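Weekly puzzle thread! Below is a chain. First person to post its structure in C-alpha cell form gets bragging rights.
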Amino acid sequence: MGYSAIAHPHQPIVRTRPPPLRLLVANLALLSVTACAPAPSPLPAELKAELGVGMPVAEASKRLRAHGTTLSVYSAAECQALLDRSPNISQLPPRGGPCIFGKIPLSKTWYGAHTDVILQIVFDASGKLVDGNFEELGSFL
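Winning reply:
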C-alpha cells in the first residue's frame, strides 16, 4: 500500500501551516549565539609551557598574576584536606607541598556567556612545581 499526494475522497484535507513566527525567531537566535562562540584560547598551552617543572611557588604566583589570575595558594595540609573533602575539585593529587588553584577570565559575550581558564598547580615538599592542569571552560552565567 503506497501513499498518494491526492487525498482520499472520504478523508478531510489537512492543511499545514507555516511554522509560527516565534519558532523561526528562536531558531535564528540560537544560530546567532552559536555562531558568536569564541575560538579556543591558546592560553592553557602557553601557561603549561611558561610554568615549567622546578619553578618555585613565588615565581609561579608572580607569573600567574601577570596574566590577571585570581588565585589561592594552599599549604600541603590544606591541599590534602581539599582532596579529602571534595575529590572532584582536584585534577592532580597533592605531591607533598603547596598547591595553587586559580581562574583567568578570558572573554565575555553580549549574550551573557563567558570563558575562563581554570588551573591547578601542585608543588613538592621543597616548593618546586611538579605538575599543572590548565583548562578552558565556558558557561552562560
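Puzzle host: Confirmed. Bonus trivia for everyone else. Residues 40-139 form a domain with the Beta-lactamase Inhibitory Protein; Chain:B, domain 1 fold (CATH 3.30.1450).
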